[in-house]
Structures
1.
Amino acid sequence: MTTPSTPPMRWSGAYPTATREGKLRRRHAINAVMAGLVGVAAVLATLPLVVVLLYLLNRGLSSLQWHFFTNMPKPVGELGGGMANAIIGTLMLVGVASVIGLPVGIGAGLYLAEHRGSRLANTTRFLADVLNGLPSIVMGIFAWQFLVRPFGHFSAWAGGVALAAMMIPQVARTTEEIVRTVPVSLREAALALGYARWRTSLTVVLRTATAGVVTGALVAIARIAGETAPLLFTAFGNQFWSTSLNQPIAALPLQIYTYALSPYDDWHAQAWAGALVLIALILIISLVARVATRGRFATAGD
Amino acid sequence: MAPVRSTPATPSPAPRTPVAAAPAADLPVEGARRTAPATVTISTSAQPSAEPTAAPRLSVEGLNAYFGTSCAVRDVTVDFPDRFVTAIIGPSGCGKSTLLRCLNRMHETLPLAKVDGRVMLDGQDIYGRAVNVTAVRQHVGMVFQRPTPFPTMSIRDNVAAALLTSTPRPSRARTDEIVERALRRTALWDEVKDRLRDSAVGLSGGQQQRLCIARALAIEPEVLLLDEPTASLDPISTQKVEELVYELRRDMTVVIVTHNMQQAARVSDRTAFMLAGELVEVAPTTTLFTTPRDPRTEAYITGRFG
């Protein structure tokens, strides 16, 4: 702190000491105000999440008993209903979407990064950005047109593919950004060992970028796990137990949607519980993958 | 003291008597020459070792290298004799690194880069039609200015990474053997043998650079290219790398690009001086530094420019 006894600094410059002190005090004040504002913004940014979580816990926790995870939905008025089918359904849909979407998305991202200047890369990058902004309901309608109508029935496949189509552009773009941070020198070192380009990409470049790519994939998974619109005309939802990919399948967001729209109080309570489970599921997926990729070595872009 | 490596008689290499005309004549360990791998397109026709005038391992004929339309290397013709260390010196931007990168076809990995001319490795043009680029790079290893250990791999795996391309893939035990030998050759074994499974990024800069050299050596290249290998190292590490280069000449052809004329004088048998993309002069190192033929060489080595 500035003690008054401290002599003015050697280079005391153009101002008399009193003016300098005044200016200094003013700058300190401005600094404090700005730091405070930024801090408030940071708190505001996380506030919605905190509020949502607290509110969900408050409303959903009471109906979240063991049977919620093991039982099937029951008719109105009957106690002890659950969402076992919707939980399994969501896991399966996310699984199908990931199996299709992650390899394609990561592969496309790798291509975009490694052939950044080519015409195909530039076109793909532009289209991926457009696709990223495509409303999810539109994706749902397209999936219905191409994967439901030709087969004559709703199916988990159609839902999974619709979700995968939403994942791909996002995964591709995040993968590209991360892979670009891998230093060129590493790429050259691998090429100089006689590695072919594909081997360089896979064993050195992609491996160095693993942590970032996984994080990007998780963000994409978390996003599609909560998607409702693309599933409305594809997976459709199912009040019964079904794990067949060829049948309509239940999903948490759909079940929440249905229950929340209903006029029944106990279904409302179930919807809250379902929302809580959905969020918990996303959280668990993130945590598990985080721990799994926390390998022995730091892998972030060097 | 590492059991396998035999240290040089003098610990700090000094410029030796120039060996000008008859390259392979008086080199120490002719018998220790390894047999050339038989598999690849560029294979040596393993000539008997005691030839008085061995053909140059690597020879460059009329080489031009471009970035887009600008010419970085102009009509260079030079021989790199077998088991000699050749240094390439010259001011920044004179094309010495580019010339080096043409010798294992790394130049063409850069955007807009183009090469014409011939680079003969054991009599075969590495820019020939049927030549497999990856095979060329396995025979002509390269180490860069900044150490480039693979950050996701352990120390052992970094060295073993070089073997990934060899067919058949060596067994685990064999790989361990090769890794140990490569690390011993670079005098790194004693420093890292207890932490082979640790990340290579934890090593010091000098150790990382020697690790990179070990990695390049693991596949037994015939030629080793060093692109300012000590530019980012401290003096002690630099000395270790220089000692290593001194040792390597017994087994392979070495080409080293350096900014540092003292270094060129210390480690090389022959020195090439480049200026503005052209090769001005190439001569036995002592000759070049004592009685240069070209006035431009003299101006450079006496510090009048560059």
2.
Amino acid sequence: MYKDTVSNSFKLGKVARIIRDIFYRLDYSEIFLPAMDKFSPELRGGLKTAYKNEFYMIKPDVTSHLLSSIMKEEELKVFYVSEVLEGTPKGTWQIGTEWIGGKVALKDKIIEQISTVKAILKSLGIADFLIDIGSLRKWREMIDQYDLDRKIVYEAIEKRSFSAMGSMDIPEAARAGLMSLLQKRGKTCDDPLIDGIISAVNDDCMMVDFGTLRHFDYYDDIVIEIYARHHGKMIGGGGQYMNRGKDCFGFALDLGILSQLASDSLNNCQEVDTND
Amino acid sequence: MINFVLPKGRLMKKAAIVLEKIGVVVKEPQDRELIVKDNGFNWIFSRVFDVPVFVENGIDVGISGSDVIDELNADVFVPLELPFGQCRLSVITSAQKDLRIEQMTNYRIATKFPNMTKAFFADVGIEVNVIKLHGSMELAPKIGIADAIVDIVDSGNTIRANGLKEIYKIRDVGARLIVNRVSQKTKFQEINDLVERLSKVI
């Protein structure tokens, strides 16, 4: 049995309440997904189990769970608070949003969601955060241009492995291109969508980093990572994906890390304008 | 300032030699010191199995065996394979027996690496009972608490001296430079510089 579950719950609850208020003010609806669902190849993460000759997933990744549950085409602007498992019984508590479908342009969805992340972190008194933005499309274009093995390249990027990239049997121009993308970090990148988002968000916390590669294969192009200068683990991340031909964007934050970072400042919480 | 964690023991000596080639001198701990500040580095000295844990949780950079990184499934960047610590993770049985992996159903396997051992036997479709030990693996088959062991083999002298033999290599193992995912972003220039300089001398 896990120790000190109750006092930990109070800490998480305090943070979740502040974030819930922000989501409600921005017209997100809270969703409640079942803890277990029948196994399907579309579900990511989770813990596989069997019951009465059927396979189930316990607490899978929320985005894939939600997408596999949607029965009709509709705009969904939702948030959730959920424990998520990743192959082991010990999970992490996440709070996140998904903005699925609708008529709002992708760029505007991303800008609103990044602004929401900023509002959440500022409400919790977390000041030294950074948000990196990357592009999976850039990697795909490079892989297609040189007809590279996607799995091998993605494994090398995810580990940031210069040794693996150096030993790949590929043209030197391809290797130079991959290395250059991996090292791309700055305030702009000559990509109209990314530069436009950074310009609209207009905050020093934004950085372009093409080494940012989220793990889930349902992401289509833009991905973000959220972290604080003085904490060794990522606060969260998110990305763009497609559902029934419509652009979607979502992000998830680690409630445990937020509660650690906010613990000193929660008593001094201030109301933050969510349009910031 | 870069926080750099090194494993105590043999790997640390070899790491120090490679780092010296790029002008980085590892200041070894005096007496029972665990952290040494020197010339832009905070040197932290830890147990082998703790190095990836430290780096995953916020120490900027470390050097660790790939066996430990894989066993712990550590969420860290692994930019460089380093030219030392080469050995292999293998299945080892009594030298008296003539065994193949396929014959090991329901065997008791003692190991320091239960996750990799379970994954290996699951991959080959053999059900085994894995017993986690923290050291002196060779003892387990001798005293009859295990039928085989999964362990690191370097020269093979230790297993031969204990009446054992290597029957299957699971994977090659070597030293790796590992980097914390957040530090890679917040100390981008310093860490890139370190990786680039190291990549030129290995």
3.
Amino acid sequence: MSRKLRFESLATGGASAWMVVIGGVTILTVVMMTVLSHYISPFNPTAINVGPILQPPNSRFPLGTNHLGEDMLSRVLCGGSVMLQVAILSVVICSITGVSIGLMSAYVGGFVGKISSLVMDSIYAFPGLVLAIAIAAMLGPGVINMALAIAVVYVPSYFRVVRSQVLTVKELTYVEAARALGAKSRRIITRYILPNLLPSVVVVVTLNFADAILMAAGLTFLGLGVPVSIADWGWDLTYGRQLMFVGAWWVGGFPGFMIVVTVWGFTILGEGLSELLNPRLREMV
Amino acid sequence: MVLLLLTLVFVILRVIPGDPVLLHFEKNVSSEAMNAMRHELGTDKPLLNQYVDYLWGLLHGDMGKSMIDYSPVSQQVMSAFPATLELAIYSTIFAVVLGVLLGVRAACRFNSAQDHGIRAFGTITYALPVFFLGMALQLILGVGLHLFPTGGRTAIGMEPVGCTIGSFHIATGLYTVDSLLEGNLLKFATALRYLVMPTVSLGLVICGTFIRMTRTNMLETLRLDFVTAGRARGLPNRLITYTYALKNAFLPVLTMIGLQFAALLAGAVLTETTFSWPGLGRYLAGRIGFRDYTAIQGAVIFFGLLVALASLVVDLLYAYLDPRVRL
């Protein structure tokens, strides 16, 4: 498909194209905010007593202060980095693992294919957060451990999409032709099969980002997150819950809102992309 | 499938680097005490023996002893289960009813402002962390308006006891059912009041899937010939939509209920923790803090078994509702 045609399909995609644009802009804003946070935040996010404790939003502290007198605006600006790091790391780990196992399972087939499908189906059937809790509880808190726990849960999503696509693509005439011309398996996979998977994998990646952030927030809420010395939306939201009952809604409210905005951005980007690129995909993920 | 699930849990909890006993004590006690605990729990045996013991124990309903109070985990899990089941049932009903109604509405008003609004509502509820939504409800409906209690399962002294018929005592552990069995409407109303906020939080978060699923299926069904034929005969629109078309579009939604059950249980862990709901999820979350690994393992296994059971029930229901499916 030519580049021009793709652009036209985006331009005439209606609601789906708009979803992609709005989702993309939202994510870009959140990412830019997090990356530039050290330059734009008015205070050090972990410096205590920069103002009186539990101040409601006012002109000096637009998002108020928390129970340690830390500036909430600075914490909200910087707090996305942990969630985004966990999400990026987990998405990288599970996409590479899921795509590789899915490819192998479908391409090799036979006993290996059956066993890998069974294992992946049983992980897929399990309540994701419960499985992540079990893994994170064994590994202990920290960014890498959280990312690993989340990655294990989402490997089957990639596996299912990749496996079903490879099973279809590998029977197509052009792959058969390549094989007849003597192309080796490695060349067939990398040159002929992988490019076909990319659109589907991109959709799963965006939806995976949304789920990974939600799950990271959930793990932090249960005490399996990062150490308290780091500014983190998940931790602020968790701690803010206790302060909400004494009327300090802003401590948990703003970080919670940022999590919702980020997850929403990834969700509508994923949904828009899936409708534009592959309308049947959503049912498989 | 169940065996695979059980093996998976075993592999994750025993093979991942990290000794439960070492993690439990955080190196604060002598190595003799740790070895004694390892011996007590059987984690000093070879892995294969541990695996066989684990499966054999599960067959007898034995999930080991808690590392905190040495009482049987299976008993603790079973006593927490009815609270989770009650929450799961009501949340599913809420999510399905709301999701299907909004989904049908969106399909009937395809591409209108209402359709876009309902779809946006679906994506926003999906993006909400369930505990954030729970906290907002607690703040507004609980602390602010005093409409509903902010936590717990029922008021003190309002726990229903069920009923006794002859020499049989019937108690399900589901407070709304037990209070009705007891014939005490006040206890029933109290239990319902405590259920409202957890049910709405959990239900709202998972209803987005049902909205999307119903909308897609209704759009396909409404284009079929029998709908056009019904319209041509002058049947009322409401009758066609809700009776004929919805019946056909509901079957895939039913499958989705089975698939969403796993998501529902995962959401229940966070909802129960938010609302101090004394179910399995809160038990699991509470044991994480105590580093009680046998209890964590027991709760995780139980969650796995519940999912397997739910998918079986949905398969049976599917065969009952759709005569073309043969088991």
4.
Amino acid sequence: MIREWREKGYIMPAKMLKITMGALPSLIKVLMRHPIYVMKSNMAAKKNPVKYEKPSYDVPEYVEGMPYCKSNERYLRPTHLCNPRAKEIIAMANYLGAYKLPAWDFANNVFNFIKKNIKLAFVGLDREVDTLRRGTGTCIHQLSLFAALCRAGGLKARYKLYSLALVEPLYQNMIEVSPIMKSWYDALGSFMLHGTAEVYVDGKWVVADPTFTPEYEAAMGLPLAKLGDDPMGIWNYPLHGTVMALEGLPYGVGVAWNFLVNFIAKGERVKIDRSMNEARKYGKKILHEMGAEEYDASVRAKYQAKIPKITLEKVPSIMFE
Amino acid sequence: MLVQDVKTKLDEILHDYIPSPISNPAERALYEPKTFYGLPDKEANEYKYKAIKYAFQHHYENNRFYREMCRENDVSPDDIKSIDDFSKIPLITHRFFKDYPSGRDFAVWLANLMSTEVPKVVIKGKNPSFDDVIDAFSQAGVMVTYSSGTTGKFTFIPRDASTYKMGQYAIGRSAIEMLREWYEPDANGFLLFPNPKKTNIYVGKVTNVMYDLVKDVQVAIDRKITTQILRISMGVTFNFKEKMMSKMIKTASRKMNEDMVTRIVNWIEEMHRRKERIIFAGAPFILNMALDRLEKEGKTYEFGERGAVLTGGGWKIYEDKRLPVEVFRERVGKILGIPPHNCLDLYAMVESNGFLVHCPEGHYFHIPKNYFHVRVIDDEGEDVAYGEEGRFAFLDSIAMSYPGFISTGDKVRIHDECPVCGREGPVLEPEVERIKGEEIRGCAEEMRRIIMEE
């Protein structure tokens, strides 16, 4: 049982514990230094809450006998907050082409569904079906939904989590709008936890980063991410030594986060969500004017030149003993 | 001292840093001009054009990854026909130098980065640490200089002997030209950085030239600082042993800081008593600690024109407090009696060999325009207009061992001329900030994290 728990990631890995423990003192310090500001911010949010649009899709109805993956193999089985056997998940996986389409096409459908429909919002961590019903969530919510849908369709999926530094437009839109978040981020020099998913297709793990809708990416001047695009070096810079691949999320992972965004700093969460909503509206305009393909092609051309990759070549004068 | 006398005097003192013969346009641009900051634009541009075109051709021909980058951007040396074409030279993002592998691959990565011949380097062990590789390169004559941001990620820059010497000569000339009214070789220096002989942190390394510029040098941080120690100081630990080391470093810091401040204060006392000429060079927060002590003890001094302060690396003094430059100058004046025109700041970074120094008259950052071309660019990579803010980028002609065409994470504002001093050529405003979202960096911040117990 302990082995299974460890495999599933239920026991918090040392790295994650270290990241959390390292991040909490500065958060507490920031909150304790500005109690009146936080209180006012929460009251303002209560008076003027952020409006999340209803999802633009309907969750298909589950029909008895719909195929789904019953395997208990690693990366296919249910894990914490990622249940591929939930009825709505099975129904959606089938709707997106599970067991009908080739693996890549199905994974791509899942990726595009989440990317286009699940809007990034700083809500408390909850189950994959809650994310599906609500149409909003953090990157972790999105990854859980992605993994659950892929697993339901028989594709192995896992999480890749890390602490990261953001590029400037994202910092301005998500961090700077909240003085509390800004102080926290600046104290750490990074954001505590982000992740991408990985899905196992045609014999290899393929990166999936469905974090941002195309509208948000356009507003931030980022390329429109596709299945297989790694955001590292594009919009984020992971902290050295923090990257971890996990089958599932550990128990207790969302406790501090939920307490923060649902209670202590709800007002700050609203500010960030509102800022992202505004950005999406702006991005929508850009994509409408330019067309998604043209926008993507022009931005990608710029990004390619920014970080040249070195393909390491053997150097005869470097000798190893 | 007249500005042309600075060159004559320094060329005599720094003769070991000057190649014989001076053989290419980059060397000519550095060693020939009588002044770095006062050349007429026409003459400076002539030197700079030839030097940067030469450097571009050199990296294009000798550096595979940079050549590929140029090909992707459809640019070759033939396209650079005047200074106006400098905007075509592809800029490497500063993040590139942070994207390194570990172990043996780190050595191969460094070698692949270099545009000059890689000497024979022997790496021992199956999984060498960064410090093992750096030591091995050092033994082969290549200085792997580095800096670290707050995330513990390093920027590594390999400097061959020639690039390293040119960098040291450049910082010496840059600093003394702006402090020429103060300078005499019989001065005494206090380096508010790590001992250059005990670290490869660039800021420490490049200030090694100070030992040749003044008669006696004391150092504030006289212990060996490796990448491991620097990383642990940044709060990034990988195992139990490092955690313990981190705790020990922090515990020992208070006592070491007190000793360091005592040494500085005693030195000030002695220099004042002997009526010596002095300079403090380095991280402002360290001098600020000494000023705190002196203020607490109610002591003041009158060094006057015999004293100078050359700061560098950023103005953060505590985790959440930045020291305004003007306030610092006022304190230095009030407590040490050093006039504001002898209290200058220097802007530089591990990736470059260009040293921008405050003018004594207006404290604007002046660009050594004979060999170093500054671009201030917007998000699209286009040059911003004068008076505007943008990302600091540069074309460095004396970086021979790596392509010194780099866009940085710093935000600056550029003006077409100094509003105060009348020297020709563009200047930057006196204070530089990090672009939002870029990790906090700066040699002073590194020092602060190494020695502060907070």
